[in-house]
């Protein structure tokens, strides 16, 4: 059986979006301030954009051309990861702080790996 790159990228992107959404939702319950609520809402919105990008939805391809290929998606996930990595220090609870730290590291690594994946395999790793 051959190595299917599209399945790996699809599962990885969906996993990254899921764990990042979990950080954002958990953040709502950490502290109730306007700043924290706005950060969590923005993190949910930018994480939700990743979900339809894996299923080649037309309005995502038209409106968010950056995440149409693995290079752009890697940069986008790296941005999300750097944001979550920065958030871990603002949470006071040990559980969410540790979880946000781990999710930030995972997102940063996946972003870098997607950029490397793009240069190694090109567009052949993208589902059509």
Automatic annotation (TrEMBL):
Keywords: Membrane, Transmembrane, Transmembrane helix. InterPro entries: Golgi_TVP15 (IPR013714). Its main location: membrane. It is a multi-pass membrane protein. One of its GO terms (cellular component) is membrane. The chain crosses the membrane at residues 7-28, 34-51, 63-86, 98-121. This is Uncharacterized protein. It comes from Paramecium sonneborni.
């Amino acid at each position: 059986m051959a190595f299917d790159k599209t399945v790996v990228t699809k599962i990885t992107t969906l996993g990254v979006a899921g764990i990042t959404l979990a950080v954002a939702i958990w953040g709502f319950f950490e502290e109730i301030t306007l700043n924290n609520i706005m950060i969590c809402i923005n993190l949910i919105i930018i994480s939700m954009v990743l979900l339809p990008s894996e299923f080649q939805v037309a309005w995502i391809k038209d409106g968010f051309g950056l995440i149409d290929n693995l290079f752009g998606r890697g940069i986008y996930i790296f941005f999300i990861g750097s944001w979550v990595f920065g958030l871990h220090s603002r949470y006071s609870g040990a559980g969410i702080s540790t979880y946000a730290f781990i999710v930030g590291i995972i997102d940063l690594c996946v972003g870098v790996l997607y950029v490397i994946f793009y240069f190694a395999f090109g567009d052949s790793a993208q589902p059509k």
